[in-house]
Amino acid sequence: MTTTIDKSADSIGWFCMFAAWLITLAATLGAIYIGEILGQTPCQLCWYQRIAMFPLALILGIAFLRNDGDVGHYALPLALSGGGVALWHSLLYVGWLPTAVEPCRAGVSCTGAEMTFLGLPLPMLSLGAFSATVVLLLAGRRKSQ
């Protein structure tokens, strides 16, 4: 028998999975638009973030359609690893880390002021997308019976 609390938890889990999927889908489509439509070549760290983000959009979409409450087991590692690269990239971008590693060079998408959205540079947008995805996946976790 399903209680009201169980239905509420399922609704929250469903909403969190849907929201995480929308975020990763928007980030994926944005990256494709920047690369393919605007013709901006991503730097090395942007590529690593894409390697984590693109499959997340697919995995979360399938999990949402299948109502797979265990999606966090296989989506969280991708979101955390992509978020780690995005954090590193953001700290390099703002100059808080030494620039021994310089993935962003002149002419590459994340270095120019023109490659911002709502005033935020791409590495920080990526960090926000990965962070929101991790929070939503953790918030939407369902207890195993």
UniProtKB/TrEMBL annotation:
Gene Ontology BP term (one): protein folding
TM annotation in the entry: 12-35, 47-65, 74-96, 116-139
GO MF annotations, alphabetized: protein-disulfide reductase activity
Subcellular localization, as worded in the UniProt entry: Membrane
Domain of life: Bacteria
Any Pfam family matching the protein: DsbB
GO cellular component: membrane
UniProt keyword terms in alphabetical order: Chaperone, Disulfide bond, Electron transport, Membrane, Oxidoreductase, Redox-active center, Transmembrane, Transmembrane helix, Transport
Topology within the bilayer: Multi-pass membrane protein
PANTHER family: DISULFIDE FORMATION PROTEIN-RELATED, SPBETA PROPHAGE-DERIVED DISULFIDE BOND FORMATION PROTEIN B
Stated family: Belongs to the DsbB family. BdbC subfamily.
Name this protein carries in UniProt: Disulfide bond formation protein
